[in-house]
Amino acid sequence: MLTPSRIFMLSFAVVILLGAFLLYLPFSYTTRPLSFVDALFTSASAVCVTGLASIDIGKNLSLTGQVITLVLLQVGGLGIITFSVILFGLMGRGVSFKGREIAQSTFLHTPRRDFLVIIKWIFISTAIIESLGTLILFLRFLSDFPVGRAFYLALYHAVSAFNNCGYSLFSDNLMSYQGDWTINVTIMLLIILGGIGFIVQYEVFMKCRAKQKRLSIHAKVVLMMTGILILGGAALFYLFEMHHMVKDMPLSTGILASFFHSVSSRTSGFNTVDISRLTNATLLLLIILMFIGASPGSTGGGIKTTSFTILLMMIWNRLRGNEQVNIFNRTIPAEILTRTLAIVLTSAFFVFVITSILLLLGSEAGMNPVETRHFFVEYLFETVSAFGTVGLSMNVTSKLNDLQKMAVIVIMFAGRVGPLTLAFSWYSRRRKSLTYAEEPVMVG
Length: 444
Known about the structure:
Blueprint: H1 4-24, H2 36-47, H3 57-60, H4 63-78, H5 80-90, H6 97-107, H7 115-141, H8 147-162, H9 181-195, H10 198-208, H11 217-241, H12 251-267, H13 280-292, H14 305-319, E1 326-327, E2 330-331, H15 334-362, H16 374-387, H17 402-417, H18 419-424
Antiparallel strand pairs: 1-2
């Protein structure tokens, strides 16, 4: 039975396989043919808007191959079901109940009557934001490249940034533009706008036009936590690297790099410094930010900012002896609290399993376990990056063997469709459970 969860999951799987087939064909690469695993990895990373790359996108892929990844990450960012819904709407055809349910659960926190209006607005706002980003980057790249090349680079990076993918056509990502305020700020704004969620964009837009009296609790939580994570992440990044990575940078460049990686590490894989050279404290910070990820209804992954906020509020209220969780004078439903715990624990379990698999598949006979202990940090970082659909790497992606790449593909897929959606897809209907007599168990 094709439940909404299964349709949502299968739509991504079909697009990934189609993209892999296209990237595997001769017109997609330059000189060295791609293995099917690399083609599948590249397609999955694009559709899941992760940004991890086992190849050099700018060198190993032809112009056709690069355009294919551009289309894949755009489709993956918005979702193939959403494209179907808007297409049927423009054609005047009715939208199926399943299609409406999937699209609403993807972008909205509560069902709304103006559902199709919001979906259309998502496409229009996406086009406007990506166009403005392309224009700004184009004007900046004009000083470094010919007109055609500058426009193409601007378009690719603007779309990649807004969809929180992090794919770059530069071999060093954006390290060559480490101190460039125009490129850094533009990319950061695109990442933030794509990462806060389309419904939050819509609510802020309507409130600014005085067509909505107040923001929903969802929008308030997203905006509040996004601001806290950006400012807190930037401050800690600078503090942890002030005697290391940013020591020899000008003050303004160090601050810019700190803010850039605070934004990029939660949702997108762009980087302006060498991640493999960061201190252990900074790597731990980035792992936490990547695990939290973007916001619901966005193009990013992770457990989401709202889940992290609710988890913190649950802990705080439990310590104070409160049974309920209240935010902005509203009580969060018990069902949402249970779902939050399930998301966090399921996500942590996925990360644990895939990291273990990478370690097992990467171990070689005769190697000293102590000398290879650094693999634990690298593989854990890679796994969390894949789950959060971030795309940052400690330069180990291209060194993974085929089995390890397949494991990373699995967690990229789980991170994009959601661990609970992936779990629910196995069940055709909810099963009623019996209620027995209660008996306490010691915990803590």
